[in-house]
Amino acid sequence: MNTNNTNERARLEAMIVASDSLYDRIDEGRFGVGGYTVAELRSIVGTATPQAAPTAPAATPGDMSGTLESAARRRFLLAGNAYFTIRSVRTGKRFTFRVRAARGADDHRHFVGLLTGSDNDGDYTYLGTIFDDGARYSHGRNSSIDRGAPGAVAFAWLWNHLDSDGVEFIHSGRCGRCGRRLTVPESVAAGLGPECAGRV
Ligand SMILES: [Zn+2]
Description:
Elements: H1 3-24, H2 38-45, E1 66-67, H3 70-77, E2 81-88, E3 94-101, E4 110-115, E5 124-131, E6 136-139, H4 150-160, E7 167-171, H5 185-190, H6 194-197
Antiparallel strand pairs: 1-7, 2-3, 2-7, 3-4, 4-5, 5-6
């Protein structure tokens, strides 16, 4: 393990410690998109070492979440299939969003969903649309969520303050473009797998 990897591992371990205190405040020990537990996070961090590579059972979410620095957020958010949670540093309030690119090659919209149910993979309610590959965001006229609702206000605020250190921006441990599980520190730091990082 070279120096860079050692540093990265130390950073990840610090992240896990931080997660511990995070979990202390969360009902059911669930958080974000992965629905992982602290124990699962710890086992996953083990995969960062060459010698330890535990394989999680298929039914057990074991995604390695990451906190995105401000410079990496916009790229991740617009990667095509981004799931993430933002958390206010000041209030601790959190919201989880999904931002998906429209399918057509000539369709330059992204659709924003707000997690409104208990199923972290499925219970997203349409919130609004990002137009022209990220030029502007507009609350959806057809959204069942009022534009004044907390989650709607949170995303509108985020869109205009992506660089803010007033929120933590936490991805689920899945590539923001293809959804594959991220396994190496560089990918976790970007929220994108090595192949997809070259395509967004
Ligand atoms: Zn990918």
